[in-house]
Amino acid sequence: MIDMLSTLASYFSYKFVICAFIVGGLVSLCSSLLGVSLVLRRCSMIGDGLSHVAFGALALATVLGASPLAFSLPVVVIAAILLLRISENSRMGGDAAIAMISSASLAIGVIAISLTTGMNTDVNSYMFGSLSAMEDGDVILSIILSVTVLLFYLFFFNRIFAVTFDESFAKAAGLRSELYKTAIAMVTAITIAIGMRVIGAMLISALVIFPALSAMRVFGSFKGVAVCASVLSVVCAFVGISASCLFSLPTGAAIVAVNAAAFIIFSVIGKVKRSLKR
Amino acid sequence: MEKALKNTTLHQIECRNLSLSYDGRTVLEGADFTVDSGDYLCIVGENGSGKSTLIKALLSLKRPSGGEIIFGEGLGKGQIGYLPQQTNIQRDFPATVSEVVLSGCLGKSSFKPFYSAEDKKRAAMNMERMGISDIASVCYRELSGGQMQRVLLARALCAAEKMILLDEPVSGLDPLVTKEMYRMIEELNRCYGMTVIMVSHDFSAAVKYATKILHLDRSVKFFGTKEDYIKSPIFGRFAGGNEDD
Questions:
Q1: Most exposed: A77, A257, A260, B194, by fewest CB within 10 Å?
Q2: Is B94 within 8 Å of A222 when comparing Cβ atoms?
Q3: Taking CB atoms and an 8 Å limit, are A173 and B159 in contact across chains?
Q4: Rounded to an integer, what distance in angstroms lies between the CA atom of residue A44 and that of residue B171?
């Protein structure tokens, strides 16, 4: 155990490990907070759809030689607005529309990659995350964006609650619920675009869903769920990244596995808590 | 009615030749009616008679396709406390009673990010009024149907002091709780002078509790006092029909 800790400590002399911890922690924090609102609005699939769009955009950026984050950010934000509109107004049904867009962008991404480099380790890291994926410029941009997302969430916390809990009442009370929903989708898109390199496209939507669901097993207040989800998410991210360092696992997969374990533990705690109440 | 006239000579809401459409179809045409301070107005009609579209229009969520809605002094957008139909709210949502009630205060403070001490006082007062102070920290999803409606009513009261709009407030409640709910709404109207607009398809409850009736079926079939409504042929037809169900 002490051996493992000292090995882990030695990793901290590498800059990219520190970057992975910072970005991984911030992304987990943001995505868990947004996840509370998305899961409760039955919109979890938006996160999944967006991550596939982000993968497509990232692949295209590689082909075009553009900066990955700078290129995929606007694409994903536009996709978020589009997905929200489609899922609300479309005749074919929101889930079908999201599935369609996400598989189409995945296909575009795979084609773009196979035309250039072929399926190699780079692609593998896009899919399942990598510690060393972040460049210096990306890290600074990630920190700025994450802090913006956090401030947005804190500042509008009560309004996000009102819109999530009961949209028709919020509208009647004069809140512009469409605006908040669009903002949440856009902010989710930003979070996903930032987190994709470290966590991976296939797995990042888990970061949106897991912490919120785990927290909901145990807590009964919106504030409690939000606080618990964000703390849990950051803890899981740090444990996951550490495991990824020590056992050279794909970073995203390690984080999601830790989240899944946490979900099982929280489910059991929730069950026990409820049976004690009775 | 008399009380209303004493309070103010202006109407709280006046609809003039109001037409509403939904998805390009006209669902309500040429509606004329007024709501005065202290009224207990019940809007009745079958499904698809334009009730729910009218609610949206009264809440300023829908623009009239013709005619106009005029709001009296101090009654504008976000000034009507709204109790939506129960089905809109998820049953497994993590939220405490006080979180839900407090969210009613949001319409008032348009730029403040957090609740003020005044908001909290207001929420506490309305929870007291609805008799739910003792369950303030209980999770909403663990409440009974009647308690849920009280919580939502308290939230509506936080949003507005003068008028509340209730959309089918007793649907899904058992008879005893229904009676209690009607009693509380009546108390708000009588004791606190709150204008009540209630949408219902329960004709017998409408004539029991309301002071005014608005009967819709794509247009206004009847508008006037409860007493006149009971004498009208349209009531006989519908009340009779109700008993056959």
A1: A260
A2: yes
A3: yes
A4: 30
Query: What is B1-77+163-172+192-245's CATH superfamily?
Result: P-loop containing nucleotide triphosphate hydrolases (3.40.50.300)
Nearest to B80 among A172, A175, A222 (CB): A172
> What does pLDDT average to over chain A?
86
Q: Can you give the pLDDT at residue A277?
A: 78
Q: Do B61 and A172 touch (CB under 8 A)?
A: yes
DSSP B168-213: STTTT--HHHHHHHHHHHHHHHHHS--EEEEEES-HHHHHHH-SEE
- CB of B87 within 8 Å of any CB in chain A? no
> Is A227 touching B (CB cutoff 8 A)?
no
ipTM score of the complex?
Answer: 0.83
Q: How many angstroms separate the CA of residue B93 from the nearest CA in chain A?
A: 7
| Contact present, A154 and B114 (Cβ < 8 Å) | no
Average pLDDT over residues A248-263: 92
Size of interface A-B (CB pairs under 8 A): 90
| Partners of B69 in the β-ladder | B15
- B174-228 confidence digits (pLDDT tens): 888 899 899 999 988 988 888 999 998 788 888 888 899 998 888 888 888 888 8
Q: Using CA atoms, how far apart are residues B167 and B181, in angstroms rounded to an integer?
A: 13
What is the CB-side half-sphere exposure of residue B239 using CA atoms within 13 A?
A: 14
In this prediction, residue B74 carries a pLDDT of 66
What would the pLDDT profile of A67-90 be if each residue is shown by its tens digit? 778 888 899 999 988 888 877 766
Q: What string of DSSP letters covers A183-204?
A: HHHHHHHHHHHHHHHHH-TTTH
Per residue in A78-123, pLDDT (tens digit) is 998 888 887 776 666 667 878 888 899 999 988 888 887 666 666 7
Q: Which residue has the tokens 């692949």?
A: A59
Q: Would you call B99 an interface residue with chain A, using a CB distance cutoff of 8 Å?
A: yes
Of the candidates A161, A166, A221, the beta carbon closest to that of B84 is on A166
CA dist., res. A98 & res. A83, Å (int): 7
Q: Could you tell me which of B172, B197, B171, B216 has the C-alpha nearest to residue B47?
A: B216
Instruction: Assign a CATH topology to domain A2-277.
Output: ABC transporter involved in vitamin B12 uptake, BtuC (1.10.3470)
Question: B61 — phi, psi (to 5°)?
Answer: -95, -10
Domain ranges in chain A are 2-277
* pLDDT tens-digit series, residues B32-91: 888 888 899 999 888 777 888 888 888 888 888 888 888 877 666 667 888 888 665 677
Q: How far is B149 from chain A (nearest CA, A)?
A: 13
Among the partner residues A40, A155, A173, nearest to B78 by beta-carbon distance: A173
Please name which of B155, B128, B127 lies closest in space to residue A172, comparing C-alpha atoms. B155
Residue spans of the domains in chain B: they are 1-77+163-172+192-245, 80-159
